[in-house]
Amino acid sequence: MLKRKIVLLTATLALGSGVFATAAQDATPESAMSSAPDTITINVPSLMPEGIEYDATRGQFLLGSISQSSVSVVADDGTLTTLVQDPKLHSIIGLQIDAERNRLLFGSTDRAQVGQLGIYDLTTGAEIHVVDLAALTPDASGHFPNDIAIDKDGNAYVADSAAGVFYKVDVDGKASVFLQDPSFVGQFVLNGIDYNPNGYLVAVRGTDLIKIPLDNPQSFTVVKVDGDVPGGDGIIFVDAKTLVAAVGNPKHVVQLTSEDDFETAAITGDYIPASGSVTTVAVRDGIPYTTDAQFAKADATSYYIQKVTFSEPIMSEATTDASMPEMTVEPTAAG
């Protein structure tokens, strides 16, 4: 695959764009109550937003940036306000909100030997912990903490797509290896992960989805899906019976429904994004929305958050390549 070099934007460019602000973080009551648009357009060159979350308190989306090593609040008109910008951090990947504890968690990496879990105050953006995950797997060829799930007790589970391992980080910031398996080895075999409110994890493993019990993770099983879900990326539970996943190459979005706690699942909806691909999904007021980092176009000038409207499932002939395009990340000021 062709290497994609991510060119970091300078502070001058970010400020001069007219769309990046550094004002207070609180959304106005009007913005929190307004109806969501079908598409939010963000005109920030080379932003590369790989991760997205919806902050119900603000009534606004949050986006991470691979190139700018930041997390921003997104107004519905596409204006960005910086929430987290910390020199210790590198490229920001998956985001996860822990609403009960008012925390924002995200993966940070240089796509090499740095793998971090950032834990910050959701309201202020103040640091709580920056956890060194790479120290747990020093012999790995690289680190890419890609996606995060939070259980009911506030424990975080992180899928490392380069090291091929799941980590666990407790509420005090103590990290450990949660699950390793020979089938996880390889670049981007592991990818998305989410917590089901019935008390287990579901994660992407290559062309499969796997169900992982919290009390005995090594006994994980493959979810038997009625249909193909190749090249899985970001996933999110809408409710205990409904999982939404970005799959394929180029990626589209499928809805999977289960009546047996994801021992099995059926594809019950399909969505082809107008932008042509999708990285991952967030849920706003029960409705999925997508974003796309546009890895194949590192010099993109606009990015989109798009509302998902499912049609009857028609699976395209997508490749089973679960990896993302290889890219080189230039070090930030931190490293």
Model description:
The protein is mainly β and 335 residues long. The protein has a domain at 4-190 and 284-329: Beta Barrel (Lipocalin), CATH 2.40.128. Helices cover 3% and strands 44% of the residues. It has two helices and 28 strands. The protein has helices at residues 11-16, 29-33; strands at 4-6, 20-21, 39-42, 52-55, 60-65, 70-74, 80-85, 91-98, 103-109, 115-121, 127-132, 145-150, 156-160, 165-169, 175-180, 190-196, 200-205, 208-213, 221-222, 224-226, 235-239, 242-248, 251-257, 264-271, 280-284, 287-291, 303-307, 327-329. The strands form seven sheets. It has a five-stranded mixed sheet. Strands 20-24-23-22-21 form a five-stranded mixed sheet, with no helix packed on it. The longest helix has 6 residues, at 11-16. The protein is globular. The two termini are 26 Å apart.
Largest sheet: 5 strands, mixed
Tally of DSSP helical segments:
2
Work out the helicity level. under 10%
Quickly name the level 1 CATH class of the domain at 4-190 and 284-329: Mainly Beta
Task: Tell how many strands the DSSP assignment holds.
Answer: 28
Strand content: 35-45%
**Unreliable runs:** 1-33, 315-335
Mean pLDDT value: 86
Please list the strands of the largest sheet in the order they lie side by side: 2-7-6-5-4
How is the CATH topology of the domain at 4-190 and 284-329 named? Lipocalin
The H/E string reads EHEHEEEEEEEEEEEEEEEEEEEEEEEEEE
Helix-strand makeup class = mainly beta
CA distance, first residue to last residue: 26 Å
